[in-house]
Every structure is written in C-alpha cells, then in structure tokens.
Amino acid sequence: MAQFQRPTLCCCRKVLTVPSKSCEGGQGLGQCRLVDIASASNFHCFKLRHFHLDLRLNFAVKEITGWQVLELVAIQPGVQTLVLDIHPSLLIHSIDCKVPGTTGAQDISPSLTYRVDPFTDYGSSLNISLPASVIRLHRAFQITVRYTTTDGPAIWWLDAELTCGQTRPLVFTQGHSVCNRSFFPCFDTPAVKSTYTATVRVPEGVTVLMSASRSAYSKQDRVFQFSMEYPVPAYLVALVAGDLQHVDIGPRSRVWAEPCILTCAVSKLGGSVERWLNVAEDLFGPYVWGRYDIVFLPPSFPIVAMENPCLTFIISSILESREFLLIDVIHEIAHGWFGNAVTNATWEEMWLSEGLATYAQRRITTEAYGEAFTCLETVFRLDALHRQMRLLGDNNPVSKLQVKFEPGINPSSLMNLFTYEKGFCFVSYLSQLCGNVKRFDSFLRAYIEQFKFSSVVAQDLLDFFLGFFPELKESCVAQREGLEFERWLNGCGPPLCEPDLSAGGVLTGPVQSLCDLWASEPPDPEAIANFNLSSWSTFQTVLFLDRLLDRSPLSHEVMGQLSRCYSAQLDEMNAEVRIRWLQIVVRNSFYPDLPRIRGFLHKHTSRMYTVPLYEDLCSGVMKCFAAEVFYQTQARLHPNLRRTLQQILFQTSALPTTTSVPSLLHPTPSSPSPTPGGQPGPADPPTTGTIALRDVNVSA
Description:
Oligomer: single chain
Organism: Coregonus suidteri
Cofactor: Zn(2+)
Region (Disordered): 659-700
Largest sheet: 8 strands, mixed
Protein name: Peptidase M1 leukotriene A4 hydrolase/aminopeptidase C-terminal domain-containing protein
Keywords: Hydrolase, Metal-binding, Metalloprotease, Protease, Zinc
C-alpha cells in the first residue's frame, strides 16, 4: 500500500463534502468528506463515463509509457479546469482534447495547457485548462494524456531474482488506497466509478493479466486487450505481467502463478473456489463479475491479498498454511459483493468494505465448514483486536469506525483491525437485532441489489436497514441506550458488544486449558503432555501461541520447558505457526533458539514475516543479531522492504512501524518519515509492548 509521509500543506488542497453516490447519479442520504484527493475540488463537475489505457511495458528500464483517454461529460456549467490526481513519479508529456464523432476544428484542441501542483507527499494535482469551444454542458468529450511512469507507489518492478522462479522479471500494481494516481491520472477516490479498457504491449514471453471481465491476446503483435464492463473505482484497476501460467479450477475460475509454484497452488485450492462462490451466491445473490481468477504473486507483494475484481492478487507465502489461505481467499470472494459491487464512498468509512466483507466471509465459512470453525477464527482475530486496543488505549481516535483524518494523511495508513473486527461486530449486532440470521441475509441481498455498482456512506446502509425492518425503526433501535448507532460509528474503544462465540468452545476450550496449565506455578508436565499440538488445527495452534505471547515475559525455566516440548514439533509446521513461536523466543531473549530465527529469515523474505521479527529483535537486546541476518539476506529482499528494515535497524530504538497509527489523524512535525512499500515509518517509541504486523493488516 501507499506510503505515509508528513504532508506538505498547499493552497490547492480542499476538503470537500459531497453527497454519497453523487457520481453515480443516486440519491445518497449521507455526506462524505474527501480530503485525500486533489481532484476533490471539481470531480463532481464531471461524469467519468469510461477510460482507456494504451501502455507499453519496458522491463529493461522499469518504465511504463503510453496514453490514457478519459471520456467525460460536464454536468455543471462554466467549468474551465479539470483536476486529476497524479504522482511525482508520473511524467506528463502532452494533453489534448476532442469531441468524439466530430471532425470540425472547433471540436478538437490538439494541445491543452496544464499545470502540476503539489498536493501531498503521496500525490500531485494535475490541473488541465479546458477549451470553452469544446466543453459544453452534458456533451461528452475526450481528454488524452500521454505520459510515462516509473517506480511510484503503485508499481512494483521485480528483478528475476526476486520472483519465485528467479528466471524472468515481473511487475505488478497495487492501487489500494490512493496509489493508482502513480499508475495513471485519475479521480483517485472510491466515490467515482467507471468502466475501462486497456491495451498492453509487452516483450516476448511475458503474460499480462488485469482486473478485467474480458481479455484477448494477439501473439503476433504481443498485445493484450482488456475490458472491464462494470464500473469500478480507480484503486481496483490492477495489472501484473511476467512468466505466468494458468490451470482452470472451475467453470469460472483459474489459478495463475509462475510455473514453479502453479502445481502447489492448484493442489491447495482444488475445487474449493467454485464451492465457496456457490455458497456466497446462495447467501448474497448473484456474483456479478463473471470471472473469479486468482494470481499468486512473489513474496515481495506488500500485503496478504487484494480483492481486484475478476482477479484476486494473493501472496504466494500464504500457500504454506491451508487454513489461512482458505480464509484469505474467502474474504476476497466476499469483497465481490461488499467493497467491489458496493463501495465505501470515502476512506474514512473503510469499515463499510472490510467490516461487511469480514461478516460475509464468516457467513460463508459457517455454511461451508460449520459454526465452530468460524467461531475459532473469530476468537483468534478478536484477540488480536483487543491486543491492539491495549497498546493504543481506549480513547485512541483510530478505533472509531468513522475516522476523521486531516488533509495530507494517507488513507492507507488507517488500515487496521478496527475496520475489520469492530466493523464486523457492528454488522453482527445489526444481524442480532433482526432476530434471525437468515432475515439478515435477505437484507444484505437487497442492500447489494439496491446499491450495486455505486458508492455509499454509513447513513445509506443504516437508513436502508431501518427501512427494510420498519419494526426495528419503530422500536428506536438506533437510539438503544449504550448501543446507539452513532456511538458505534463515532465512539472510541472496543466494540460495544461482540457476537456469541460459545459454539467454538469445543475448539477454543482446549487452547485455553493448555494456556492455563503453562500459567500455573510451576507448570505440570504430566498434564501438559495430554495435549498434542500436532492434532490441532492451525488456528488453534496460533491462538495458543498468541496467548503465550501475551503473557511474555516468561521465565527462562518456562521458556526452556516450552522449547523442549514444542520447538522441534513447531519446526514442521507452517510459517504462520513458526513466526509466533519465534516472536516468543525473541521477546523472552531465549538464545538457544536463535538459529531457528536465522533459518526462518533466510527462507522467508515477505514483509508479513520479516517486519514483525525485525521489530521485535530491534526493540530488545538482539539488534546486532538482526543486523547480521539482514546483511546476509538483503540481496533477496525487495528494495522497498530493504529500506523499511534499514529504518527499523538503524533509526529506531523500540518502535514497530505499526505503532505510528495514533499519529495519523493530525499531521505534526514529528510525523513518521517515509517507508516505501506501504508501512508508516518510525516515530517516538511506545511506552509498552509491540504490535505485530499481522495484528494490524489481515488482507485488503
């Protein structure tokens, strides 16, 4: 995701409040603030009907060149300037304007005047002067922008040695939340949706994929054609190009990956994807995007997964853990309804995407795998939420569902567990008010049908909810004392209530019993021996290790006993399990298991595994060891991750990057310095504890 930097205040920035769904022509009932886009000053003056990209990928110089054609309609009179979001890494060559279907000189302006102004550290403002002779109210016109873009926050070039196969280079884009302004000029806000097409020219042997509903390929010309026939916001336009092959795994799904991992990826998913899609359709209505393909990306992919329509991006590192893979894919499937079809109009209400998608994910897993499994996964995530809450404090404003951030704050920095889990708890509460989960399923189907392909604010959802259940509106559930909707949205702290998870007791009970045995003085080895971790699921094991981690520091005697009981056993388990044991080792300075940390960091080069361990190593007494391992492995790290780890190693004393969250609402001179690749940089050390990266970002 995009990097957060201290903002540069400038006169061109505006804070705009517009009706929700204003760009889709709907009757939005709420209001949303748009402080993260330069185009907020006038995007509501235009209707973006469609755009086309014509791009050439040059791997040798790591550059994308080409042009973009935007088809616009002026919907307000007297507009003289078009403002688009771009980035300093995107170089404009020329801009022209024409009216499609006309040939008169008065309808063509071959070269428009434009100006690029600073906006924030994550973007710039492209101001285009429009010719009065061409721009008429309600008449379509086309703006063509010729440009070159290189290594902005959306575009990740991987040299061959950083790919899984280590034979050919690869490039991918990651637009969430406000990164795609470095990929192409746009209205970089979820409030604006449009269809798009693309033509992409590549060297021989390169396969290109995009988040599009249709595609075609001319082998002779080495040209790929794409079409997205459904309206999407800018952040959901995605591209990947490299040595990619595919296997069909269902009637509307295929898996894409580099050849060396394709067989593994297919074997882990099998026919499950079509099953999950069918369950989701039974719950929430038809899947509207046609295709649901998945592409597995190298460990340099900066997050776990991204819900690009028709083409989910997911990190290949997750293939080690079947249960985490299952949850992440189902979560991205749920976004097909919640986030992609119906989108939050402003990043200040990201929970409308993530909270609803998390609820939908758990409805799917309940139907597919039973209530106990879903409750276990939920307990695991809510544990992480409360861990984050203890570290940030009950009054931290980032714990609100409606976060108000100031101009210059990067919305990507507000990706945290509250948008997922507190949002999930609020949606679960709405479900409980209905008295029947099936009735709430019916509401969600109607909600999708009502707002499909538009962008909404929380008030749209809640008004539709109360209109769908008039008896609840009559009983004033929105004002129920202690559980007011307004308090859910704008109150700090943990969820006002949590769903009943007792059905998971058969799985969570043994975990807690074993934790209690290890907490006793001294631990009873005979009782402990009755528990066999190898018979547990991954989620049971990571829940156990997370709760042990919460009890740190542990005595050296207990650590020795834990190591004798579990170290060899955990070595055979997946990375999600092993990293938690290694964090326990680091936080308790248990030197006998340091070789396991070295081996893990030599094998795993993804952000989600390296950053938490380096943060823990550098916040304790093992900084020299961390530096030694870094120098041994840095050649296999993506440059963005390398710089992040260098900052952890050499510019911090006890700070994990994710603890800078509290400073994100109001920029100050002490705001974090930039960390490429999407994580906040270091700030002042926290007073207690550390936050592992997985405690903040689940997936996009």
